[in-house]
Write a structure and sequence with these properties.
The chain is mostly helical and 129 residues long. Helices cover 68% and strands 0% of the residues. The protein contains five helices and no strands. Helix 1 (7-26) packs antiparallel against helix 2 (39-58), helix 2 (39-58) packs antiparallel against helix 3 (62-83) and helix 2 (39-58) packs parallel to helix 4 (92-108).
């Protein structure tokens, strides 16, 4: 795990992202964007951002893999949870889009973009090293 100076803030934001995903997945009538977009793109994007965010905090390490697998399991459980409501339905394609977003987030973690929070901290906190 990286030693980020603002790690507690980054973790809080990550958990808020996760809470937003749970809410949006289970809300009877989630808010819809003002523009036309495919539902699967939203699923991909939400899980991509979530995984990429935690990757910046937990790379390198086994913890990230555990988080990624947990995110996928949560996405599947939330899809089945939607099937229990009268207004929503279960979609395995949504779960696949979630999983694809998770994989893309993990792949992004292999690039220099995985250092975004670290670089932000250096700039914001005035550190040059």
């Amino acid at each position: 795990m990286r030693q980020l100076k603002l790690q507690n803030l980054w973790l809080l934001i990550g958990w808020l992202l996760l809470a937003a995903i749970v809410y949006l997945s289970l809300a009877p009538a989630p808010p819809e964007p003002d523009f036309e977009i495919n539902d699967k793109v939203l699923h991909f994007a939400m899980y991509f951002v979530l995984t990429a965010w935690f990757a910046q905090i937990f790379l390198p390490g086994k913890r990230l893999v555990i988080y990624a697998l947990s995110f996928f399991a949560l996405g599947v459980v939330l899809e089945f949870g939607q099937g229990l409501s009268d207004e929503r339905s279960t979609s395995l394609l949504d779960a696949l889009a979630n999983g694809t977003g998770i994989v893309a987030g993990l792949l992004l973690a292999l690039t220099p973009l995985a250092l975004t929070l670290e670089c932000f901290e250096r700039i914001a906190l005035g550190q040059n090293s």
